[in-house]
Design goal:
Three copies of one chain form a homotrimer.
Chain A (H helix, E strand, L loop, with lengths): L7 E2 H8 L2 E3 L5 E2 L1 E2 L9 E4 L6 H6 L4 E5 L11 E5 L2 H12 L8 E2 L4 E2 L4 E2 L4 E2 L4 E2 L4 E2 L4 E2 L4 E2 L4 E2 L4 E2 L4 E2 L4 E2 L4 E2 L4 E2 L6 E3 L5 E3 L5 E4 L4 E2 L4 E2 L6 E4 L4 E2 L4 E2 L4 E2 L4 E2 L4 E2 L4 E2 L4 E2 L4 E2 L4 E2 L3 E3 L4 E2 L4 E2 L2 E4 L4 E2 H39 L1
Parallel strand pairs in A: 4-5, 5-6, 6-7, 8-11, 9-12, 10-13, 11-14, 12-15, 13-16, 14-17, 15-18, 16-19, 17-20, 18-21, 19-24, 20-25, 21-26, 24-27, 25-28, 26-29, 27-30, 28-31, 29-32, 30-33, 31-34, 32-35, 33-36, 34-37, 35-38, 36-39, 37-40
Antiparallel strand pairs in A: 1-3, 2-7, 22-23, 40-41
Chain lengths: 356, 356, 356
């Protein structure tokens, strides 16, 4: 992975992350790597004390390490000491391995409606589509096959990966990344049944608003609101194959892992962390800062307070652990009950004898 | 959301829904809205007694309300009294906010095979594809990037949203709506292992038949049958990211929420209601009218009778609730057993003393 | 389904599967079918003793049956006796109903970058895209709308179904089948949070390697590694809507059913069988040959040994069954405890009386 950039000096990177350079601060590094695969020109990080030896032995030109660890690492290489090496490594990667920027371009096979407003430096890939009345901000990249419906607003510096679909009228902020086959703005799932048993669509005529700096994983769906707005707040990160129902409100800096499903009108407040394959009934509310473990189930209308939650129906992790341990003790409990019954029978019989 | 149609009078809408108009029956309304967002020209609905005051205070031109509620709502506005306001609202929305109809059109970047038969008024969007021998009924809309394989039959008045994929030979009825990236007719998941451990594909050469008035959510997959037909019955509604395996039979007017998975050859009879993230083993059968709660697990071969079912393995809701309550009482039961053991020990010891 | 091939004689097919022909070994068959739908020219199989009568009565020209069953089946038809009729049927279908092979072709609406290397006999469908520096092996079929990013390597004889997306740089082996809307190489889901609560992307600059003879179902996602490689081993079969996280290692001949999710860095060794909707925490390891039931949950770091596993957290099937049976007995246990308390109270009271 080396040489994907013109590189930076160790001193520059140390300054960037607020760290301290040791060894040859003028050495130039070009890309990030794992300890196992690193070669000359690479920077790696080590956070775990147990991996210090492996880091020392690896071929990287620079190691980002915990404060105080430089002495044990420097040799033929440079070291950057940082309070949080993994965070420093992520910040360094933003500079050395930045996401690819495609320049201003419209592929001849793409369709951009005459009434669409496309900003400067926008890339429109092969067979991509930008509909009538859409607005696409400066520097945004719409990759091959992506579909931007009519009156959609996409901000600046976004990346729509191949085959993303934005239904008519949805709004996307700045620097939003939508991975392949993400679908934003499909109809929410709401019907009303008549006397004959036929389902009529409850109107799904609202919209979706995805705020700045959101990233959404491949094949995830965010449905439009029935009436009103489905919202994904600034800085929130959503993994692949997630379902976000109509009128859901997701706050800022929320993290949601793969395959989780969120039913209609549920609210997930800012800074919540949601595991994978979690299911939310409708009209639930997750309060700011709550953490919900994978595969948990949140019943409709449930309020999930701050803390760590687990299981179905969701309960505090400590409670879950306690009950789960007892679950394993059920056979023992059953034996104890049988033994007690035997003893009580014997006592009763002995007492009966005495009474005679 | 106002003015998306030429509008209707309150009297017309009241007749449409079999309701009673109160106030200015000649007033014109143009679109549906929520109570919070409604403005002049909008119609809203209220069903819950607690929301009557909010409905009275809102700016809508017309409120659809329960029978007998008109007197408390009329003022500057009109009211339609209806036996089921939410259903009436859905029916009104079908008229005021109808789904968009794109007229006859074939985009120059689309491909329509010479041997495809395309009916009148069909819309074929940018980069859409209609294969050799396919038949597409009158008024159907094939949006950008959608793929209609060879010998596919699509009925009249359907909407295939962007990037839908219909594999060769599948059959789609009339007025079917398939949301973005729906995949119909991919190979079912069936293999036979040989002595060397290699998996050979069990033939997946059947087809899929989706009947009239079905709607299927974004990124949902309906696999072709191994031999025979995978079927989705008339009027059934399926949410996003659902998996329908090979040879599954889904009846009419079934509702299936997001991320549910149905294994091969399972049968879901008409009028069943299935929650989200439910898992079905193969060859299970859900009888007509059964309701299965979210995240439930149905074992292979299981027959689910009418009633409400919950949990894994699936059980009647009442049973599940009773057991789940006991689950929370396990710590208490454990303490009770410990206390009983102590008491029995003491009794035994006292009886022993007496025996001396 | 008859006549989809020029056909083979019963003798040829018997030789192919190592079986024994009975009846007219020169009879010609053209396609596979189910017992219910078979007509003249079709071959069916029967494995279950209970279905022998139905097989005897059906209209197929040839029945593949267990050893020793020919005498009960021959009449107007031919029989092939085989040790494993279902396997023999699959092998016969590979010959009679082979997957469709499209010849060398590049659709005028497709884009093949000048620097892409495309082998002989490659099919590139409408609006498909092959990026700069990509290599596509002989006989591979890239169907409409599929996207092959820059520097991607695709082997020989592969099929990329419509709208598949291969991000830049991923590697696909020979004879790999990727169903519609599969996404390979999207960024893994990894972030590091800074003091202000902002999430920074942990670099996702590794790649994906999918080995020979893998088949992956529609809408499944295989994320690129953070650093290093996400790998899917030779002959592995993955169903629809599965999530394979960054740096996951899947061995050879693994089977994974629909909607399962595998978190980062988890290892699934060769010959494992994984049910549907299973969730894996990160850094778990499934040892060779383990079988995990549907909807199971595997905690982070867990090692799953050979055997059959079930439930959340995952446990040996026998253990799960035992505990699950007790779960149903909880009400009974609770009553027994109450009864014991009553009896002990009575004993205590009687003993007290005696003590007086």
């Amino acid at each position: 992975m080396s040489r994907q950039s013109e590189g930076r000096t160790v001193a520059e990177l140390a300054a960037l992350v607020g760290g301290r350079a040791a060894g040859d601060a003028g050495a130039r590094v070009f890309g990030v790597a794992s300890i196992e695969a690193a070669g000359a020109g690479d920077v790696v990080f080590v956070e775990d004390e147990k991996l210090l030896e492996a880091a020392r032995a690896c071929a990287a030109s620079c190691v980002i390490a915990p404060e105080g660890a430089a002495a044990r690492l420097v040799g033929a290489r440079s070291v950057i000491e940082a309070a949080r090496p993994k965070l420093a490594f992520a910040l360094v990667a933003e500079v050395l391995n930045p996401p690819r920027r495609r320049g201003a371009f419209v592929h001849p096979s793409a369709t951009v409606a005459p009434g669409a407003q496309v900003g400067g430096g926008v890339y429109v890939g092969a067979c991509a589509f930008v509909g009538e009345g859409a607005e696409v901000g400066e520097g945004t990249q719409i990759l091959a096959g992506a579909f931007v419906g009519e009156r959609v607003r996409v901000g600046r510096g976004c990346v729509l990966h191949p085959n993303v679909v934005l239904y008519d009228g949805v709004e996307i902020g700045d620097r939003v990344v939508l991975h392949a086959c993400v679908v934003v703005g499909a109809d929410g799932f709401g019907y009303v049944r008549d006397e004959a048993g036929v389902y009529h669509k409850f109107p799904q005529v609202g919209t979706v608003r995805i705020e700045d700096d959101v990233e959404i994983g491949a094949n995830t769906c965010v449905d439009r609101a029935a009436l009103g707005v489905t919202r994904v707040g600034r800085g929130t990160k959503i993994d692949n194959l997630v379902q976000v129902g109509h009128n859901v409100e997701i706050g800022e800096r929320v993290v949601i892992a793969a395959q989780t499903g969120i039913s209609g009108s549920t609210v997930i407040e800012s800074d919540a962390v949601i595991g994978g394959q979690v299911g939310f009934g409708d009209h639930a509310r997750v309060l700011a800062g709550a953490v919900i473990g994978s595969q948990a189930g949140v019943l409709p209308g449930k309020i999930v307070r701050p803390g760590v939650w687990w299981g179905t129906p969701v309960q505090p992790l400590e409670e879950y652990k306690r009950l789960n341990a007892l679950w394993g003790r059920l056979p023992r409990m059953r034996e104890e009950i049988a033994e007690l019954k035997r003893q009580v029978r014997e006592l009763t019989s002995r007492l009966g004898e005495k009474a005679d």
